[in-house]
Amino acid sequence: MPQRLTQLPSHTQADLLLILTTLLAGAGWIFSKEALQGFEPVHFISIRFILAGLLLVLLGYRSLRRLTVTEFTQACKVGGLFSVAMILWILGLNYASHVGIGAFLTSLGVVLVPIVSLCFGEKPDRSLWLSLPVVIAGLGCLSLDSHFIFGIGELFFLLAALLFAVFFVMNSRYSARIATMPLTAIQLLLTGIVAFSVSLFMEQQIWQQTASIWGWLLASAFIATSLRFYVQTQAQGMASSSHAAIIMTLEPVWTALFAAFWLHESMSLLQFLGCLLIFTAMLINRWKVIWQLIRPASHITS
């Protein structure tokens, strides 16, 4: 981490790292979409995460050796959950017709975080119940739009969102106790191994690709995966899951902007309204934490 960044307060460091995470994540949607022009979806995700995981294993070999059996087991548990979520996500990206809308559907995992937290003994805030009708209204706008078809790709995105919510809560808990490098390396490498095993039974292994396809894959592996998840795991260890989830809501916004610029996607009025309602629901869901962040600033200005 740059020295100037380390001199900032820890909460500010976490915020900046999480914003960087959302930018890398948004770019990753485009990298992956381009790579899918040549690779089968699960085969692609397996190569992407094996490469990303191996890089972090090499960089963090010493820290991996220092892991206890309990820490290694916890890292594998989160990694196994993440692998299933990523397989569902890449299948969604492969079959869905609109990347920007898919990003907002996947981001519903943020709304589901407090619901999942119930299973870990946390009590949900009233904002959760206020956000749910807004989510339903947003999904309703998408379903009513004649140009939008809710197909198998969108279903994969929603299932992935549920698993990402579970992963987010568990990862926030474990990242506070396990070093960032080994935790991230195990998660990524295990995801690649699981995906490759699934791909062997589901898909044809096509290795002969153009240089551009390999370029997109390498960008996905090292920029949108190794770097992105290392930064995210480090940031989550410095912030609560609720605080981190607020900033992570920026990911679908960046994704939609990147998709509009690179893939020339556009949204109808109903589609835009649906995505706006989903984004609003995410903010309502985190309003209590947002208000706590706003209050100190208002005291300082007054």
TrEMBL record:
- Tell me yes or no: is Signal among this UniProt entry's keywords: no
What is its membrane topology? Multi-pass membrane protein
Subcellular location, in the record's words? Cell membrane
| Family matches, as InterPro entries | Diverse_Substrate_Transporter (IPR051258), EamA_dom (IPR000620), EmrE-like (IPR037185)
Q: Gene Ontology cellular component?
A: plasma membrane
Keywords recorded for this protein, A-Z: Cell membrane, Membrane, Transmembrane, Transmembrane helix
Ranges for domain EamA come to 14-143, 152-284
Any Pfam family matching the protein: EamA
Q: Which domain of life is it from?
A: Bacteria
Is Cytoplasm among this UniProt entry's keywords?
no
Please list every transmembrane segment annotated in the UniProt record, as residue ranges. 12-31, 43-64, 76-95, 101-121, 128-149, 155-171, 183-201, 213-231, 243-263, 269-287
Q: Which PANTHER family match?
A: EAMA DOMAIN-CONTAINING PROTEIN, OS03G0707200 PROTEIN-RELATED
- Its name, as the record gives it, is DMT family transporter
The taxonomic lineage of its organism, from the top, reads: Bacteria, Pseudomonadati, Pseudomonadota, Gammaproteobacteria, Oceanospirillales
